[in-house]
User: Fold this.
Amino acid sequence: MKEQEIVKAFYDYYKEFPYDTLEVKFIFTLGGSYDIYTFYYKDNNKNEGTLDGRELYTYERQVHEYFETKIDSIDQFNIVLYTIKEDGSYSISCKWESENANQNLLDYAEVFYRWVNDRMMSMIFEFEKDNNLVPTQYDSDGDLEYLSSWDSGIFTFHINEKNNLEYKVVLTQDGKERILDLPLKDYFVEGILDHYLVTNNELSNEWKPWNTMILKSNHNDIPHYKRGEFVSYILE
Assistant:
C-alpha cells in the first residue's frame, strides 16, 4: 500500500475545506466490501464529508487490496483510520472492531438510498447530456442552460440468482413515462452489490432478506423521515 500517495489524494481532495484535522475511516466486512466515512474538524467542530469523487477510487482500492493481504493473518483488521493534519502530516491506524463496525455498517445501510438517488440523478444527466436528450434554453444573458428532462423516476435494482444486477430506469415528465436505457457506472454496480451482500449477511439480524430494491425519486434529495415512502426492499 502506497501510504503517501493515498494520504496525498485524500489531502488534495479536501484541501478546499477549512479543517485542523481530517479523518478518513474505512470499515471492512470479512466478505471484502467496505464503507468510507470522512470527518473534518475545525475549532472543535465536527463536520461530515463525502468521498464520492471517482478520482479517489484507485486509492480506495489500494486500501482494499492491503486489507485482503491481512484478512487471514494474525494482523487482520477491519478498520483503517487516516488522520491527516492541515499541514499534511498524518498517522494511520489499522485495528479490529466488532460492535462498533457492525453499528457503522447499519447506519450506512439505512441511508444508502441517498447515495443511490444522488448517483442516479448524476448519471442520468451525464448520459442524457452526452446524447442530446436534455432540453436547453438561453437565459437572459445569452448563456445556454439545461432544463430538467424528468420530474420523477422509479429505479428498480434486482440481484438475480447468479448475483448479477438487473435494473430498470423509468422516468416521468408531464405525466408521460419513458424507459431510459442508461448504462450504469462500474463503481455504482459494485456499490449496489456490496449493499446487497452486507444487508443479507453481516446485517441479517437487523435487515429483512431482499433481492430487489425499488427507489422512487422526485429528482431531489429524499429526507430520512420519508424513507418509507420512497424506498422499498422486497424478496422475489
In short: The CA atoms of residues 104 and 163 lie 25 Å apart. Helices lie at 3-13, 57-70, 99-110, 112-130, 186-200, 227-230. The longest strand covers residues 34-42. The chain is about 30% helix and 30% strand.
